[in-house]
């Protein structure tokens, strides 16, 4: 076939899927092609605009390396990550809601004992994060894993620092016999997603701010239960209602409570003001 035009080109491309043997792949490609072609027709994309789109996606890929994931950032800031999350997780009562993974997760961080002090050398308010991992019916889960990571008090993750060997404000904790875990960290602050790449340019052109409300990331898992990827957000943050990646859910917003110097709940003697935050993660039994 030849002499394709606006009317028949889409069908001709779709026909090329006739030999696809994976039905799910075929379904996804069919829908994607329909939407993509309809989009081009609807906006009557010019050649300059088409090339600008190619350049944008190329720059997005070129910005990625083993520490920087500009494509996840693009997906996050366009709400695609949150849409995928919402479609795939319908949490029953008593279980923790999920939210985006974000671009800064690093796998395989060391397992640390409960009570560990993260970021001792860093600026910021000392914060005792404690909690429990429970079943949907409130039974404690011993030996569950809480894999956490967060930005520092200036809003930077370790992977954003010039020295790629620095690992900080990350770790994996195991719950004790009562399902409890606890560690010291610094109080997170709201921070802008990276704006030095193509996604930052896009946000600027959209007239959006790049900020995320203060949060601590966690992936919580236990054998026989569904793993949940989530955040704990700081109540009162000014960006809770305008998160650049659309990730906030009411059930994930908690109070970071300020205390005067003195003995902290875990027995630590604090000579300066500190904060405590307590959160119970509920896990859904695996099917
Ligand atoms: Fe984050």
N-C termini distance: 49 Å
At CATH's second level, what is the architecture of the largest domain?
A: Sandwich
Secondary structural class: alpha+beta
How many structurally independent domains? 2
Task: Classify the beta-strand content into a percent band.
Answer: 15-25%
What would the average pLDDT be, to the nearest integer?
Answer: 96
Main β-sheet, in a few words?
5 strands, mixed
CATH structural fold name of the largest domain: Protocatechuate 3,4-Dioxygenase, subunit A
Number of strands: 13
Could you state the order of secondary-structure elements as H and E? HHHHHEEEEEHEEEEEEEE
Query: What Rg is obtained from the alpha carbons, in whole angstroms?
Result: 23 Å
Determine the number of helices (DSSP H or I, runs of at least 4 residues).
6
Spatial sequence of strands, sheet with the most strands: 3-2-7-8-9
User: For the record, what CATH class of the largest domain applies?
Assistant: Mainly Beta
What does this structure look like?
The structure is a single chain. The chain is an alpha+beta fold. The chain has 2 domains: 9-45; 75-283, Protocatechuate 3,4-Dioxygenase, subunit A. It is 24% helix and 22% strand. It contains 6 helices and 13 strands. The strands form 4 sheets. It has a 5-stranded mixed beta sheet, with no helix packed on it. Strands 4-1-13-10 form a 4-stranded mixed beta sheet, with no helix packed on it. The longest helix has 21 residues, at 23-43. The model has no long low-confidence stretch (mean pLDDT 96). It binds fe (ii) ion. Fe (ii) ion binds at residues 102, 104, 151, 212, 215, 217.
